[in-house]
Automatic annotation (TrEMBL):
<dbReference type="GO" id="GO:0009279">
    <property type="term" value="C:cell outer membrane"/>
</dbReference>
<keyword id="KW-0410">Iron transport</keyword>
<keyword id="KW-0813">Transport</keyword>
<dbReference type="InterPro" id="IPR036942">
    <property type="entry name" value="Beta-barrel_TonB_sf"/>
</dbReference>
<dbReference type="GO" id="GO:0015344">
    <property type="term" value="F:siderophore uptake transmembrane transporter activity"/>
</dbReference>
<keyword id="KW-0732">Signal</keyword>
<keyword id="KW-0812">Transmembrane</keyword>
<dbReference type="InterPro" id="IPR037066">
    <property type="entry name" value="Plug_dom_sf"/>
</dbReference>
<dbReference type="InterPro" id="IPR012910">
    <property type="entry name" value="Plug_dom"/>
</dbReference>
<keyword id="KW-0406">Ion transport</keyword>
<feature type="signal peptide">
    <location>
        <begin position="1"/>
        <end position="36"/>
    </location>
</feature>
<keyword id="KW-0998">Cell outer membrane</keyword>
<feature type="region of interest" description="Disordered">
    <location>
        <begin position="783"/>
        <end position="805"/>
    </location>
</feature>
<protein>
    <recommendedName>
        <fullName>TonB-dependent receptor plug domain-containing protein</fullName>
    </recommendedName>
</protein>
<feature type="domain" description="TonB-dependent receptor plug">
    <location>
        <begin position="75"/>
        <end position="170"/>
    </location>
</feature>
<keyword id="KW-1134">Transmembrane beta strand</keyword>
<keyword id="KW-0408">Iron</keyword>
Length: 961
């Protein structure tokens, strides 16, 4: 750990304690203020055009947003494509963050369904989203970028904007869209809420929100607290949070409003592997469970069928995590072998081999977040035409990761301990091996200040030119700083003199797993592993920076932005054009120079260095949209409107580095959206049908390229380019085109019946995939093809007792590359092109069953391509048959809920109890990856199985007072 400059502490001291904050909040709730105004008449202040509240949201319907023009604008007057999730949505679905609800919006989904085996995707930031087939990391909080994962305890709404939008973001991480969450402000109406939730996984969650009027119509304050211990249905995964949120609203007069928002959080999580582990067990069982004498083992021993040694060319040791304090040499440690696939992976275990709710890696996917966000906003109404706003954002988050892996299951085939005499008590037991080869601490800072002004003029107020209608203008100036310091850590003992010596000395922990009892032979929490290993006398392990700061990645990006937006309403509001133009001036710094090869440097010691590639960069982006209200207020039709929108965006903040340490290029996006929007029955029904054509240049390639980069790094080691194996987040680019359509309907059929329905289709086409990776492979291939140079820590596929050569590894890597390139411009692994969703709630308002409500939700997703066979080409050899992919089945998911609502305690408390059954009847496991073996390249073998999801009961009690 290191100390942050300017007095900011890396590790958030004063961790939020829910119990003490709860006492403080209750005292705050009960306080009686003698200086409240006595006047019975309530002052009514007009909202600033720079804000939208959830007060007018009805059921699933939200009529206004800031996301189109940065002014409070009716959704029907916007040509941009968006979905707004109201409080009713997360109440009915018992959702706690955007990841739970995103699936109900067209063209969007949680990104984890797109990836393969392992918990790596869940190890990263809390909000993982995909829009129209493109990965998105745009997390926005009240129109400012944020790195704090979302939660509903302090939210008033979530706005999902799909496609580029220069009005919202000229320079951010992803041009494919964003999620803006609006947090709750203090209001001038006293309101309090206590919510307690439990589920049958043993989770509990308590939230308290207290809104108090301190000076009538002048000063109000809100305190919201969260204490959440959420157990994943896959055990022992969990996510624990403590959060505290505070909001202040001061409105001294009808012209001025000042608001403050602040939040602190502490978050611990053990991410799980959503897939079934690879099969390194059944071959050993089918071979008759052969045993190997550990003492007799050396690299010349022929291992029986069904078994393999761990590695034949490197002396490694591992701590046996069973309380014995034993360190074992892994060089010829006998364990089960697996079925090698042409995709480069190992075939999956049968889906029924292990309990679906067991994570074999235990709590190895450990992470810790802590941080804060502060926002201050001042709004001033100059007159009825001119409004001003000044907003400030300050945020810090520490991301700490100790992902020890352990997602692979092995079987111990050693009949004796190392002495060759003592019987091995774990012979035939399953185990995982966790390696401390990569961990991370990252400090992320976001600071921004924004000044906005609006001017409105309505020609309808005059005697002439009334047909010109109303015009709104917004002028905005904004400065943002995004800064991060990324330390890459390894679990190492004292005395390692060079980074090249680290491999055999990395901390390795061997933990036995009992599937029957779902127990582990020792602790698995990643943050405890150094202490666990040091229980052996003489061990001196700790999470350490690497020599010369290898792997460190620092960045500071400063962006000065100017934005001009114009929206007009011609012909009595029938024609509504919107134009937005934005320019961003960018200054960027990257990782500083490192010239201390014998010193362990942390990220602050390495510092920053100016990036000449961004010097003088001033990209301009724009939006052009128009809405034509073809029919208005005719019969059942409130309106039928045609719209068209064209927009682009630019992002300098492309995440990671390419395999040769060069910076990722800027990411750009363009979109055309057009369609029809309608409203029926006096606002009770609204819907939108959108056709889109979206293009993203220099998007990041999918994570399925990571095994290729791992192979490439090992190959670089064999030719003396080890520095190219030290990139903490290897990445490369691709161009993506996405085409399709989206339909969404929301309805408040009557006062007591709400419906939301969505249907979408998209298809992505990629090109120019991983250009720098392919250039490097082509440039150095002659040094690897046929090379007999041994690759450290890798085993031969032909004979697992032998080390892998560079030539063999190159062939393995090339097959993986061919598999990725086979999907270029065609079928994409696990891309489900059609999706339909339905959500409803019905309340009984009178009669015997007054207060009862019930409803449900259903999700259907189309089948997906999951892999490809191989064919023999007379000129090219064994190649991917890209025209005949394998497919998985459709995916269904159903949930139901029922509630009862009544007044209690003399009508002073509004009580609601609700039961949700999620994944009704279980969501069946489904295949996400198929592959083949060399002997039978046309028959699909399951590479990766998603576990699906088990049925879960959730009980929620809500008290409003």
């Amino acid at each position: 750990m290191h100390t942050i400059d300017s007095g900011e502490q890396r590790s958030m001291s004063g961790k939020v304690k829910a119990s003490s904050l709860l006492v403080s909040a209750l005292l705050f709730s009960g306080a009686q203020l003698s200086y409240a105004q006595d006047s019975a008449e309530e002052e009514v202040f007009e909202l600033s055009p720079f804000e939208v509240t959830a007060e007018n949201d009805r059921g699933y319907v939200a009529e206004n947003t800031l996301s189109g023009t940065r002014l409070n604008t009716a959704v029907k007057d916007l040509a941009t494509t968006m979905s707004i999730l109201t409080e009713q949505v997360w109440q009915d679905t018992a959702s706690t963050d955007i990841n739970d609800m995103l699936i109900f919006t067209p063209g969007a989904e949680k990104s984890e369904s797109q990836f393969g085996r392992g918990n790596s995707r869940q190890q990263w930031w809390g909000d993982n989203t995909m829009f129209r087939g493109v990965q998105v990391e745009n997390i926005v909080r009240n129109q400012f970028r944020s790195n704090i994962p979302s939660d509903t305890y302090n939210a008033s709404r979530f706005e999902i904007s799909r496609g580029p939008n220069a009005v919202l973001f000229g320079v951010t991480r992803e041009p494919a869209g964003l999620v803006n969450r609006t947090t709750q402000d203090a209001t001038f109406t006293r309101s309090n809420e206590l919510q307690v939730r439990i589920d049958d996984n043993g989770s509990y969650r308590t939230s308290l929100s207290l809104n108090q009027v301190l000076i009538e119509d002048k000063l109000a304050a809100r305190v919201s607290l969260l204490d959440s211990n959420s157990n994943h249905w896959i055990q022992p995964g969990f996510q624990d949070q403590e959060r505290a949120y505070f909001a202040l609203n001061y409105t001294p007069n009808e012209k001025l409003s000042v608001k403050f928002r602040g939040e602190h959080l502490s978050w611990d999580r053990a991410a799980v592997n959503p897939s079934v582990p690879a099969d390194r067990v059944t071959a050993w069982i089918n071979a008759g469970k052969p045993g190997v004498d550990a003492a007799a083992s050396d690299e010349d021993v022929e291992f029986p069928e069904g078994t393999a040694n761990w590695t034949g060319n490197d002396i490694q040791t591992a701590f046996v995590n069973d309380g014995s304090g034993r360190m074992v040499q892994l060089r010829n440690f006998a364990r089960g072998t697996g079925t090698r696939l042409l995709s480069g992976g190992i075939a999956s275990l049968p889906v029924d081999f292990l309990p679906l709710d067991l994570n074999v890696g235990g709590e190895g996917g450990a992470q810790h977040f802590s941080g804060y966000n502060y926002q201050a906003i001042a709004q001033y109404r100059v007159n009825e035409k001119i409004n001003l706003e000044l907003a400030y954002n300050d945020e810090f988050v520490l991301y700490g990761f100790r992902p020890l892996g352990g997602s692979n299951l092995f079987v111990d085939a050693n009949t004796t301990l190392d002495d060759g005499v003592t019987a091995n008590p774990h012979f035939g037991d399953y185990f995982t091996l966790s390696t401390g080869g990569f961990a991370m601490d990252q400090d992320r800072f976001l600071r921004g200040i924004r000044a906005s002004g609006s001017f409105t003029h309505d020609f309808a107020d005059g005697d002439q030119y009334q047909w010109l209608g109303k015009h709104d203008f917004v002028l905005m100036f904004e400065q943002n700083t995004d800064e991060f310091y990324w330390d890459v850590l390894r679990l190492l003992p004292e005395g390692v003199m060079s980074n090249g010596e680290e491999g055999p000395l990395l901390g390795r922990v061997l933990t036995y797993v009992d599937p029957d009892t779902k127990s582990f032979s020792g602790p698995t929490w990643g943050y405890d592993m150094a202490e666990v290993m040091n229980s052996v006398p003489g061990n001196t392990y700790d999470w350490r920076n690497r020599l010369n700061g290898a792997g460190i990645n620092n960045n500071r990006t400063e962006i000065d932005s100017s934005l001009l937006v114009w929206q007009s309403r011609f012909w009595n509001g029938r024609i509504v054009p919107t134009l937005g133009w934005r320019q961003d001036e960018i200054t960027q710094w990257g990782t500083g120079p490192r010239n201390s090869p014998t010193v362990r440097l942390d990220s602050r010691e390495v510092g920053l260095a100016a990036d000449p590639e961004t010097e003088g960069l001033k990209p301009s982006t724009s939006n052009q949209g128009i809405v034509f209200h073809a029919i208005e207020n005719q019969g059942v039709f409130d309106h039928i409107s045609l719209f068209y929108n064209q927009a682009d965006s630019f992002s300098v903040a492309n995440f990671g580095q390419r395999p040769d340490l060069t910076s990722m290029p800027a990411k750009t996006g363009e979109t055309e959206d057009y369609g029809v929007r309608f409203g029926l029955f006096e606002g009770r029904v609204s819907g939108v049908f959108t056709m889109f054509d979206m293009a993203v240049a220099n998007a990041t390639v999918p994570t399925s390229w990571r095994p290729i980069w791992s192979d490439l790094g090992d190959l670089f080691d064999t030719i003396g380019k080890s520095e190219w194996h030290e990139v903490p987040q290897v990445n490369d680019t691709q161009d993506i085109k996405s085409e399709g359509w989206e339909f969404q309907l929301t309805a408040n059929v009557n006062e007591n019946w709400n419906i939301m329905f969505g249907l979408d289709h998209y298809k992505t086409f990629d090109s120019n995939v991983a250009p720098r990776t392919l250039e490097l492979i082509d440039e150095y291939s002659s040094q690897w093809q046929g090379s007999s140079e041994e690759v450290p820590d890798r085993q031969s596929e032909a004979n697992p007792s032998d080390p892998m050569t560079a030539g063999e590894l190159f062939d393995v890597m090339q097959r993986k590359v061919d598999l990725q390139l086979a999907q270029v411009g065609g079928y994409k692994n696990n891309e489900r092109q059609y999706k339909a969703t339905f959500l409803t709630n019905y309340k009984i308002l009178d009669g015997t069953f007054k207060g009862v409500a019930f409803g449900g939700n259903a999700i259907w997703q189309d089948k997906a391509a999951t892999g490809f066979p191989f064919i023999d080409d007379p000129e090219l050899g064994t190649i991917v048959d890209a025209k005949n992919p394998f497919y998985s089945s459709d995916v269904y998911n159903i949930g139901i809920h029922a509630s009862y609502n009544r007044k209690i305690f003399g009508d002073k408390v509004d009580w609601k109890v609700q039961v949700n059954v999620n994944n009704l009847g279980d969501k069946d496991p489904f295949v996400t990856r198929h592959s083949v073996v060399a002997d039978d390249p046309r028959t699909p073998i399951i590479d990766t199985y998603s576990r699906g999801a088990l049925q879960t009961f959730v009980l929620t009690n809500t008290f409003k007072f």
